[in-house]
């Protein structure tokens, strides 16, 4: 059977509903899963820093009976001229799966092409699929279902936003990408997600007007204004994104039981105020915890 990757959300489009449910089941099992990945090794290559992705993947594979190997890309031969092709082929002889946090999605894609074991994205500049899965797990946990619910993403149309567009479209959640015109999500992803949503009876909407977009929202979501590898200055970002900040005024426009989400790390006073992220509508720490359960579902599905 051909190996499967999770580099883009759409790589596992058909499995997405089951992944959400499996993550919730595994959460309920509280770490007692009977070691389905006994003796399996997951290599984790990082080209960028990480707290949540690194720790949650390590704990996830451990609690499934396997083992994680942390690799700093700058210490690999790949950073000193060895080709991606050779690296992917060699690593595939040693390990059962590869989690990769890459600077450039083209490197990620190439790794997936030449690896003979599953490659799971731990973020690149285009997408962050495991984050989106944890986010959907959190929304199902809090809201019970996706149909008829409205997620409003505010701020930079970045990797997190791109993956949320795909995940929302696949699961039937309505999503508004509310971003400045010069920082909208990837155009191709927006178009593809809209097509998937059309077929599913849900809606993908672009907006530049936070006060309009946030009305009756079930979920407000934001991310940092300046992603890793983005050379936009804080000054420029502040001018671009200030009106998209999640604060109590925007939250007041949403439904009273609206949940507030952020993939973290957060910068209080920039993309979100402290009173909102630390307030009663915020679910950001449940969301962070759900990275663990979501990734267990991915690892189990791809590596078992
Ligand atoms: N949300 C997320 O991916 O966090 P890390 O960068 O800490 O892994
Ligand atoms: N958009 C952010 C997400 C960090 C988890 C980044 O790429 O830096």
Describe it for me?
- The protein is of the alpha/beta class.
- The chain is built from twelve helices and nine strands.
- The protein folds into two domains: 9-127 and 290-303, Rossmann fold; 131-287, Rossmann fold (3-Layer(aba) Sandwich), CATH 3.40.50.
- The chain has helices at 16-29, 52-63, 84-94, 105-114, 129-143, 159-171, 187-200, 210-213, 234-241, 248-253, 274-277, 284-303, and strands at residues 41-46, 67-72, 97-101, 119-121, 150-154, 174-178, 204-207, 219-222, 259-262.
- A five-stranded parallel β-sheet has the order 7-6-5-8-9. The protein has a four-stranded parallel β-sheet with strand order 2-1-3-4, sandwiched between helices.
- Helix 7 links the parallel strand 6 (174-178) and strand 7.
- It is globular and about 55 Å long.
- It starts with 15 loop residues before the first helix and ends with a helix.
- It binds phosphoric acid mono(formamide)ester and norvaline (NVA).
Features:
Rossmann fold; alpha/beta; four-stranded parallel sheet; 304 residues; 2 domains; binds norvaline; globular; binds phosphoric acid mono(formamide)ester; 12 helices
Tell me the domain tally. 2
Kindly identify the CATH topology of the largest domain. Rossmann fold
Large-scale geometry? globular
What is the number of strand segments?
Answer: 9
- Helix/sheet category: alpha/beta
CATH architectural designation of the largest domain: 3-Layer(aba) Sandwich
Roughly what percent helix?
A: 40-55%
């Amino acid at each position: 059977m051909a190996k499967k990757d999770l580099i883009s959300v759409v790589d596992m489009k058909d499995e997405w509903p089951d992944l959400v449910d499996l993550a919730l089941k595994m959460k309920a099992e509280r770490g007692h899963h009977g070691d389905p990945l006994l003796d399996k090794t997951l290599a984790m290559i990082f080209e960028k820093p990480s707290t949540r992705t690194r720790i949650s993947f390590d704990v996830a594979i451990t609690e499934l009976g396997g083992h994680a190997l942390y690799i700093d890309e700058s210490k690999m031969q790949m950073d000193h001229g060895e080709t991606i092709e050779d690296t992917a082929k060699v690593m595939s002889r040693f390990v059962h799966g590869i989690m990769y946090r890459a600077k450039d999605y083209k490197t990620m894609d190439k790794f997936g092409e030449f690896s003979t074991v599953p490659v799971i994205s731990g973020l690149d500049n285009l997408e962050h699929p495991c984050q989106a899965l944890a986010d959907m797990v959190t929304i199902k946990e809090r809201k019970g279902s996706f149909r008829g619910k409205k997620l409003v993403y505010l701020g930079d149309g970045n990797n997190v936003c791109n993956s949320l567009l795909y995940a929302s479209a696949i699961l039937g959640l309505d999503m508004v990408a509310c971003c400045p015109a010069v920082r909208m999500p990837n155009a191709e992803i927006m178009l593809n997600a809209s097509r998937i949503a059309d077929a599913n009876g849900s809606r993908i909407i672009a907006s530049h007007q936070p006060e309009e977009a946030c009305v009756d929202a079930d979920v407000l979501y934001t991310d940092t204004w300046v992603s890793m590898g983005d050379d936009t200055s804080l000054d420029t970002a502040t001018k671009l994104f200030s009106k998209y900040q999640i604060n109590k005024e925007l939250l007041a426009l949403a439904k009273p039981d609206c949940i507030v989400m952020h993939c973290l790390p957060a910068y209080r006073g920039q993309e979100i105020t402290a009173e909102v992220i630390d307030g009663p509508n915020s679910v950001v720490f449940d969301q962070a915890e759900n990275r663990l359960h979501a990734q267990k579902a991915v690892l189990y599905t791809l590596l078992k």
